[in-house]
UniProtKB/TrEMBL annotation:
PANTHER family, per database record: NIPSNAP-RELATED, PROTEIN NIPSNAP HOMOLOG 3B
Gene it is expressed from: NIPSNAP3B
Domain NIPSNAP: 37-136, 143-195
Gene3D superfamilies per UniProt: 3.30.70.100
Pfam families cross-referenced by the UniProt entry: NIPSNAP
One Gene Ontology term from the biological process aspect of the record: mitophagy
Protein's name in the database: NIPSNAP3B isoform 1
Top-level lineage group: Eukaryota
Amino acid sequence: MLVLRSGLSKALASRTLAPQVCSSFATGPRQYDGTFYEFRTYYLKPSNMNAFMENLKKNIHLRTSYSELVGFWSVEFGGRMNKVFHIWKYDNFAHRAEVRKALANCKEWQEQSIIPNLARIDKQETEITYLIPWSKLEKPPKEVHVLWWNESADSRAAGRHKSHEDPRVVAAVRESVSYLVSQQNMLLIPASFSPLK
C-alpha cells in the first residue's frame, strides 16, 4: 500500500497558470542536483482501466528499456478513481529529453502501447521532484511500500491518531499549515510490474 500526500503552497497557488497546464517545473537550488523523479498521473476512462493496465503489463518492458521505472500504482481511493500514478527516474533533463526522443522513434512502443492506450487516457499530469537531501530511495524489506509506510490503512489511521497526540508533530503542523492551500491523500495499489510494491 502506498499513501501519497501532495500539497499546494500559497506561493505556488498565487501563480497564474494557463488553463491547459497540468505540470510543474523544477526551480530553485534542487534543480542543479541532476537526478530527478518524474511523477506521472493518467486519468483513465472508467470503461478502459482494465484494458489499459493489461496492455501496459504486456508492453512495459519496451518502456523500461529506456529509463528506470521506480513504481506504478493505481488509485484505490483518495481523489478521482480510474487513475494511475507512476514514477520514472532520470539522471538529468538531458537524459529525459533523450528518452522521450527515443520513445517517439520506437516503432514497437508506439504501435503496441502508445497508439492503443492514447484513446483510453482522459487527462495526464506530470511533476518533477527531487529526493530530500538526507533520504535515499531503496526497496523495502517487505513487498509493501509507501511514501509514508504503513502496514495497512488501519495502521495508518492509528499512526495518524498517535502522531496528533505528539506535541512535536502538532507544533510542526501549526508552523507549516499557514503555507498550505490544499492537500490530497491517495491510497495506491501497486501494479504487478511495479518495482516498488
